[in-house]
Design a protein that fits this description.
CATH superfamily: Dihydropteroate synthase-like
Mean pLDDT: 91
Helix content: 40-55%
Oligomer: single chain
Number of strands: 8
Low-confidence stretches: none
Order of helices and strands: HEHEHEHEHEHEHHEHEH
Strand content: 5-15%
Strand order of the largest sheet: 6-5-4-3-2-1-8-7
Largest sheet: 8 strands, parallel
CATH architecture: Alpha-Beta Barrel
């Protein structure tokens, strides 16, 4: 590993050790003008750092920073613009967050720059399959990688779980070819990406089936439109839906939860852990 990546190994292992112990909260900080939930709120470095600090105090074990919205219908931005948004935040966040930092990008050049800034995890919504250089960039840095399932368009007729399995097989082959250690890889079923509502539910329900790959599962359902038709679905309804889905995913074996609301999830997981630790005497 290059000297410029020397600090990544420690931060990566801190993150992976958290994942091994139990439900791990990944807090979301979007430095974008158009993200579906918090677009425009954290564009300034000061606002982004303050939000990261709040997430960590609420229980986040890692902070995930994104410079391009990947919501349905999003407008792609060039790597230079993505980095322009990320650079002033990452420069301080890695030093001050007190937890490992992840970058949410599918562009190898953005990932390379972020890794040089000290980021320890790359969260790739195209699972190493959009940018051919991504796997090599991750391997060179010794970073962890979140491989997410994605599709260009929704097709309600397909068997989405079988499609996910084939996708992950390709991603894992790319990672292996580039020299990314298997122990550095997490899988994300990609709820909300190229799936119908029913397929999103199927993707969550398939977590035990995805465990065949032997990698921790990350779930990202926070505040998504999947919950918009719930009562009060624009605010509390989405939070309640998110908590319910994440608790359900945790009981199925998911290990990492990418969320906007860290404290609420810390509380929910504390209750879940307490209940699971009780030995029924009946």
């Amino acid at each position: 590993m290059s000297d410029r990546y020397a600090e990544i190994g420690h931060a990566r292992e801190v993150f992976l050790s958290c994942v091994a112990r139990g439900p791990t909260i990944m807090g979301i900080v979007n430095v974008t003008p158009d993200s579906f939930s918090d677009g425009g709120l954290f564009l300034s470095p000061q606002a982004a750092l303050a939000q990261a600090a709040e997430l960590v105090s609420g229980g986040a074990s890692i902070v995930d920073v994104g410079g391009e919205s990947t919501r349905p219908g999003h407008k792609a931005v060039p790597a230079e613009e993505e980095w322009r948004r990320l650079e002033p935040v990452l420069a301080n966040l890695v030093a001050k967050a007190g937890v490992p930092v992840s970058v949410d990008t599918y562009k190898a050049e953005t990932a390379r720059r972020a890794l040089q800034a000290g980021v320890a995890v790359v969260n790739d919504v195209w699972g190493l399959q959009r940018d051919p250089a991504m796997a090599s960039v991750v391997a060179e840095a010794g970073a962890a990688i979140v491989v997410m399932h994605n599709r260009e368009r929704v097709d309600p007729a397909i068997d989405i779980v079988s499609e996910m399995e084939r996708f992950f097989e390709r991603s894992l082959a790319l990672a292996k070819r580039a020299g990314v250690p298997e122990k550095h890889i997490l899988l994300d079923p990609g709820v909300g990406f190229g799936k119908s509502r029913e397929q999103n539910y199927q993707a969550l329900r398939a977590i035990p089936r995805l465990e065949q790959f032997g990698r921790p599962i990350l779930v990202g359902v926070s505040r998504k439109s999947l919950f918009r038709d719930l009562p009060d679905g624009q605010s509390n309804g989405r939070l309640i839906g998110t908590l319910t889905a994440n608790i359900f995913a945790a009981t199925l074996g998911a290990r990492v939860f990418r969320v906007h609301d860290a404290l609420e999830h810390k509380t929910a997981f504390s209750v879940l852990n307490a209940l699971q630790a009780i030995k029924y005497q009946g």
